[in-house]
Amino acid sequence: MKINAPFVEKILTAFIKEELGKFGFKKGIIGLSGGLDSAVCASLAARALGSKNVIGLMMPYGEGFGPDLNDARAVARQLKIDARLIDIAPMVDAYFIRNPTRDLLLKGNKMARERMSILYDWSARERALILGTSNKTELLVGYGTIHGDLACAINPLGDLYKTQVRALAVHLGIPESLRAKAPSAGLWAGQTDEGELGLSYTELDEILKHLVDGRESPEEVIARKFPKTQVKKIAGLIRNSEFKRQMPPIAKISPRTIGHDFLYPYDWDK
Amino acid sequence: MKIALAQIAPTLGNIATNLDLHLDLIEKARRAKADILVFPELSLTGYKLRDLVERAALNPQTSKTFKKLREAGRDLDMVVGFVEEKPQERGQFYNSAAFLHKGSILHIHRKVFLPNSGMFEELRFFAQGRNIRAFDSPWGRSGMLICRDFLHLNANYLLFADGAEISITISAAPGRGVAGEKGFATSRMWELIGETVARLTTSVVIYCNRVGFEDGAAFAGGSFIFDPYGHKVAQAPYFDPAFLLAEIDLGDIRKARKAMTFKRDDKPEVTLANMERIVRSYED
């Protein structure tokens, strides 16, 4: 799980700068939740692009997110980036008044997509590319809302496990108060990732590292004395979330089809 | 012999932009009085071309891009990487390296070992080269390999058996593994193999890798030169663009081969006889 944090910082800041530059952008925009991942991403962006070229969009739902909003503000202040506040309650409430539900997951997903919608709007207004903040752990277990927080232009954190993001956060000087917070998807008040997943990020990441980086079978990982139920559960989460990591399949009927045999690099001519 | 390595980040699929970059570096190498300038794998086109391969393909004998390189390189040798379409094999595309001497093409190597697993998919888009052979350059008998070729024992052995004293590898090797103290874990692998090949073949080993990102993958840089004793003569930084200049004494090849008689004592006929036996005994 160990990373050489200064080297990782160097790679990721170069990635942000180079990718934005290739597509003619100087500015980056990030949804600042008050959590660790968006703070790390904003810190990398500020180093890569300069503070004045980074916009942090804080999009709480009404009043219930007071402490997180304060943390998001503190990150923006520390990094000297441009922070803007947009309360998503009026838009989200307007929808749910007409389509009521008690399902917190439905509400949370709608909020995540509302934030995505606002981010893309501000991306166009400010000519700023959206930097995604989903880490490798979340991406692998599908812990994100498709077309919500998973949506972005580039993702600097997507190959770092949560525990590695924490190590990078220490190197980047993210305050201890923020690093010590229980990670939360913020779908509802009081939600924590580890509570919902039923195991700690440290355990989760160790298991993922064997399954994914080590290309081991669940049986091989269980043989390393990891709990059988948890390994099976994680393997199932990976398998069942593949749809969140890929473009939707296109039915092939012609000789040449997007995604099948029409294959161009993302960085074409860049 | 003064060697220049161009550790560059080509623009993916834009030959005109890359040609300008090559011409700038040729001028820089000329001013530095380099004898040879080595560019990385697919230096004229970028690496992850996929369906752009056919658009990037050219015939070095007739291409205007090569004409400009040849004109610019009249007083300097160079190695460039490009996508080749031979006139007699139209519709087949090779990942090739050309050695240019005084404006003419002395040798072309077509990548034999196309990586096609994990993050690599070269066999999907390229034809496989069939030959690994040394050639006579103004600096002595030389051989060229492209990236993964260099990681195959037999590729290095064939150049050695064919008399190469200078081994030039051009590369587009992405970096992987960030737990170590310096650079990517994969860079350490290249360096270990570079040193090993230099020692085992008592040859000068030149390795030019690229930098920059393509679709999120970072190329690791860290280009290097080993002398025939396996001592590192020079190394470019990891990950950052660089123009590396280094002087090597070609007289060291003779000295190293007197001291370490691997070449004198080699038995290619033993290799040949046993390889025939081994290959014939293969079963499906």
Question: Would you kindly provide a written description of the structure presented here, covering whatever features stand out?
Answer:
- The complex is a heterodimer of chains A (270) and B (284).
- Chain A has 270 residues and is of the alpha/beta class.
- Chain A folds into 2 domains: 9-187, Rossmann fold; 198-241.
- Helix content of chain A is 50%, strand content 6%.
- Chain A has helices at 5-22, 36-49, 66-79, 89-98, 104-126, 136-141, 162-172, 176-179, 193-197, 201-213, 218-222, 228-240; strands at residues 27-31, 54-58, 82-85, 128-130.
- In chain A, strands 3-2-1-4 form a 4-stranded parallel sheet, sandwiched between helices.
- In chain A, helix 2 runs parallel beside helix 3 (66-79).
- The longest helix of chain A is centred in the middle third of the chain and has 23 residues, at 104-126.
- Chain A is globular.
- The model of chain A has no long low-confidence stretch (mean pLDDT 94).
- In chain B, helix 1 runs parallel beside helix 3 (64-72).
- In chain B, a hairpin with a 5-residue loop joins strand 12 (224-226) and strand 13.
- The longest helix of chain B is centred in the first third of the chain and has 17 residues, at 15-31.
- With 284 residues, chain B is an alpha/beta fold.
- Chain B has a single domain (2-281), classed as Nitrilase/N-carbamoyl-D-aminoacid amidohydrolase (4-Layer Sandwich), CATH 3.60.110.
- Chain B has helices at residues 15-31, 53-56, 64-72, 122-125, 153-161, 185-201, 251-259, 268-281, and strands spanning 2-7, 36-38, 77-84, 94-101, 104-110, 135-137, 140-146, 166-170, 204-208, 213-214, 217-218, 224-226, 232-235, 242-247.
- Chain B is globular.
- Helices cover 29% and strands 24% of the residues of chain B.
- The mean pLDDT of chain B is 97.
